[in-house]
Write a structure and sequence with these properties.
Layout (H helix, E strand, L loop, with lengths): L12 H4 L3 H12 L2 E2 H8 L3 H13 L3 E6 L2 E6 L1 H35 L8
Antiparallel strand pairs: 1-3, 2-3
Length: about 120
Amino acid sequence: MQTMARAATTSDAFNAVAEPRRREILSLLVVQERPVGEIVAILRLDQPSVSKHLRVLRNVGLVRVRRNGRHKLYRTNPEAIRPMHQWTSTFERYWRHQLHRVKERAEAMETANPESNLKL
């Protein structure tokens, strides 16, 4: 059986966000830009680990960095996140449709047999 090599996390946004800590960092940065130290404190991770995750996110374009004196401030890059959002919204529409079908079936069953409903 031949397997296909997985793309490096440093070159593919989807692989980069497969790591839960990177998703946590992105969630923090979508609210406001933050320095590394603040991310470290909020997530209670060590600084080298946060820096490594930020480097991966920056390399795939999901995070931007801006210098403010000696500090680097990180923020999400909405343009890079948009394709991921568009792709996942396909599944959101699918699940919304499935839930609508379940609701329709439940309502049809209730209409067909109203005495079978339990009253609490």
